[in-house]
């Protein structure tokens, strides 16, 4: 049995860093480690038969002897096979594999021994989401999501790009990239006009971001949205935010009711840059020469007390008795945060899910009655509120991140349908969600679902940066008071040869690149089609250091790229 010990610290890179210890157990399955530094660790093992075992988190305290630890083969496990191959489909002897069970804030990682055939037999616990990290000398390390446990999986590795390919890629960007004058809105859009023929037949422009807290990304999105509205007839801005929580902000954009600064509180987008965009949308709608009004919507379906409150308010209007019956069963979903709900027994979650399913059936049966007591628009909105609640319960029960991306795609398509034929929308979300190809952490991000529905009418822009500051939530357990919550961090220049480094070598501080225009052949294509490192930072980061890069096949995942050489932190609202 091969036993591994990994540190649960933010700076440990699960793709490349070695475990603290990697040992072989004795004949009786016993194993041991030398003295360990105080801290928290993850323990895993892989048996000779391929069973993957994970322990609960281990905490080592100073001056306290470590007690015995036990790893048990889970009874409920799924058997599956993995083959690591090159691009010709030939298995790669000596390939190495890491099995990642996704967790928060730390992932479990197991280390099966390398094989002479490139083939691995695994038996993993049934619960959880998994990714694999495959590597081999001379090939680019790849992180690959596991779509379905129990099905054979082939992980293809590419030979690393050579210097001639990289030089060709830089030269192609220099010749074909669109140099932008500014990230700031209100300074004209003439430099963006070359994008019109690129986007003329597009219905959804997806704008990603490499962090959730970069000022220049948010400003550039504002500027692009202004261009798409005034020059190309786009009217909907859909955010990676909860559907119900965005309704009040949408009402402000339409009517001027409410205070947008207050309505943004608690949102990831509670920044001066986003507030300026919201106010611009309101100013646009106030102009009587704009008969088609802009809409600001949310497509997410995470824990949402606002959805429960609005749904119950509607039922109180059309079916008071049923609203009263639902008050107590749905109460755990009305707390300020999700903690109370998530601590409920699993059976209670199933009961609440079944209750919402029954309510959905009742909504359809009573559509005529409910509509007469309200309006078709109110009934449709209430049904959508019920839908996002069911989506959230489904994600909790299935414990799959993929549920969220599928739901967000469905919700955006619903918004387009409600707004009517010809409606064009801008989608604002993280790079990991807008990709139209598989992501490291998930086989089917939102963009891939949208690509299946819209085809070339979806244009996905990935955002990239070379270096600079951003804001994120500090995940350290005991930071000093001034470093608690959402604070400023800084990312050093991207590694040489990475996607971000290649874009920086084109020599433009601000750049748009249309990847659809890349010729499908030649050395530049050979570089762009391969997997490359790029900055990939989400909502959390750490003062202790944190892996700032992920990998992406840009040509597979994006239609275009927007690049900022140096960034600064998004500015929080007071």
How would you briefly describe this protein structure?
The chain has 574 residues and is an alpha/beta fold. The chain is 33% helix and 23% strand.
| Quaternary structure | single chain
Over all CA atoms, what is the radius of gyration? Answer: 25 Å
Low-confidence stretches: none
What distance separates the N and C termini?
A: 55 Å
Q: Name the helicity range.
A: 25-40%
Q: Care to describe what's here?
A:
The chain is α/β, with parallel strands linked by helices and 574 residues long. Helix content is 33%, strand content 23%. The strands form 5 sheets. Strands 13, 14, 15, 16, 17, 18, 19, 20, 22 and 24 form a 10-stranded mixed β-sheet that branches. Strands 1, 2, 3, 4 and 5 form a 5-stranded antiparallel β-sheet that branches. Strands 8-7-10-11 form a 4-stranded antiparallel β-sheet, with no helix packed on it. Strand 7 (96-101) and strand 8 (108-110) form a beta hairpin. Helix 7 crosses helix 12. The radius of gyration is 25 Å and the shape is globular.
What are the main properties of this structure?
574 residues; five-stranded antiparallel β-sheet; 18 helices; ten-stranded mixed β-sheet
Question: What does the secondary structure layout of this molecule look like, with pairings?
Answer:
Layout: E1 2-7, E2 21-24, E3 39-46, E4 52-54, E5 58-60, E6 77-85, E7 96-101, E8 108-110, E9 119-125, E10 130-135, E11 142-145, E12 153-156, H1 163-176, E13 178-179, H2 196-199, E14 204-207, H3 215-232, E15 236-242, H4 247-255, H5 260-263, H6 272-286, E16 295-300, H7 305-318, H8 320-327, H9 339-342, H10 346-365, H11 367-373, H12 376-398, H13 401-419, E17 425-428, H14 431-434, H15 446-454, E18 458-474, E19 486-491, H16 499-504, E20 510-514, H17 523-528, E21 532-535, E22 540-541, E23 549-552, H18 554-557, E24 560-567
Parallel strand pairs: 6-12, 14-17, 14-18, 15-16, 15-17, 18-22, 18-24
Antiparallel strand pairs: 1-2, 1-3, 3-4, 3-5, 6-9, 7-8, 7-10, 10-11, 13-20, 18-19, 20-24, 21-23
